[in-house]
Prior knowledge:
Elements lengths: L1 H20 L8 E6 L14 H7 L7 E3 L5 E3 L19 E5 L14 H12 L14 E8 L2 E6 L20 H4 L11 H5 L7 E7 L3 E6 L13 E6 L3 H9 L6 E2 L6 H8 L4 E16 L28 H9 L3 H8 L4 E3 L23 H10 L3 E2 L5 E3 L2 E2 L1 E7 L2 H15 L4 E7 L1 H4 L17 E6 L7 H4 L25 H12 L3 H18 L2 E14 L2 E2 L18 E2 L2
Parallel strand pairs: 1-9, 1-10, 16-17, 16-18
Antiparallel strand pairs: 2-3, 4-6, 5-6, 7-8, 8-9, 10-19, 11-18, 11-19, 12-19, 13-14, 14-15, 20-21
Amino acid sequence: MLKARTLLLATAAAAMFATAAHAERGSDGQLKILYWQAPSILNPFLSGGTKDIHASSLIIEPLAHYDTDGNMVPALAEEVPTVANGGVSADLKSITWKLLKGVKWSDGSAFTAHDVEFTAAYCLDPAGGCNAAERFQDVTSVKAVDDHTVRIDFKVPKPFPYGPFVGSEAPIIQKAQFENCMGAKAPTCTDQNFGTIGTGPFKVVEFKPNDVVLYEANENYRIADKPAFASVLLKGGGDAVSAARAVLETGEFDYAWNLQVEPEILTTMEKKGKGEVISAFGTSVERLMVQLTNPDPALGDKRATYQDGKNPHPYLSDPAVRRALSMAIDREILVEAGYGQAGKVTCNVLPAPAIYASTANDWCKTQDIAGANKLLDDAGWKRGSDGVREKDGVRLSILYQTSTNSVRQGTQAFIKQMWQEIGVETELKNISASVFFGGDQSSPDTFQKHFSDIEMYTNNFNGTDPENYMLRWTCDKMPSPDTQWIGQNMPRYCDPEYDKLAAQLAETAAIEERAIIAKKMNDMLIDYGAIIPLIHRGGVAARANTLGGGAYPNVWDATPWNIQDWHRKK
């Protein structure tokens, strides 16, 4: 209670300061933000890319956000429902949200509970492949009780009923705009997906996919004197180093996101005095996602799809190979070379909060080349004349892909060398981040299609409760043509025992017991080798010295979650 009261006081004080700092909407001109991973769509339900979720968060909002401390704070709702305030039923099988009155969409029409009800139907349509589907786990109905009240019912008691509509991954979209874009039609609605109407502080003026988004202040935004900026230019593309330089050295931009840049380079740039490097640790993990199905192009539509377990990968289906790949990696070198203080060695895909961090996989912290070689020898993988191992005519030859970035290419080079020591041949591929993390259903190079053997990227989750995050690897979350290639289970991992633990987690209230279950789920993924964690990453950004108002990495939500409060320092 004391913590909540302190948070409310701090939030109120911040709001008062922000109001005092700018008395008129749009008085601070244009804000320039640089995302070296350019947005490709402005509908987060159709993309798993963080940059698309962030770009959308200036426009569309959830019922509640997570602040920079991981606390839930209302956005389109009057308050966060709890059992104590009557918003969550005593049996934990329903949650009722009271919506703010007087909220308008940027087109001037009224925002109502019917938009919330529609958004659930949009995401729950089985033919649509909604990227936030795990947030609606166990939901049986979402109903508009009246224009300003929404009730969500669950088929089981939900000790943590805040999956739907909390955080920027699951915002509300306008029924009038998207009602003809249900199911399989969703990706075809270009006008809607590129020109999304929202209730947020900004609206879209121009969107060039994989390049730039121009926003202007939403004249219908509910807070009269916000946002402080008249417009926002969100520029995409380039690389992390040039993004850092644009803020820290040249001063062309006000904020640069996700600076996966060698630490010594950032330190040198910061000395120019135009801006500062800021960072925060949350749940982000740079990981290798192992392809457990066969990605052979000759398979056509069956390529990289599960097929009820009848389409296994020719060599990564061997647990000895998966374990040896992890054992051969020296993670300390990867941290030292690419991350410095912004990285830590991790053996978990769920590294935080601390209560959820397992120690069962700590064997991965120590490189073991000899052990990896013995494991492959014992499994019958013999070295050929060129040093590459093979078995039954199958070579250990890996296609290893990731997004284009100097740190990632450096990590790839290190790992290729380490795998060479155990007789594994590696072909490296890097793809423009805008494409790799994009939502283009026609591209063969998205991270969800995973038409490779190993792919590497970072991901995390909104908030501090891992339930929805761990649901990403249940059997029904695999990307495939049937889901429009939407889904977060990139390895195509499927274990009924894992799914049972997911169901158990959803019904467990005590945080200590939830932690035990979540750790078991993490350990199953790591022990199986579906995911090979590398580095627990801090969120690193660059901010101009002139920028204030809470412009800071939010590792629990989208960084622009509070962009209505960003302003120029006076």
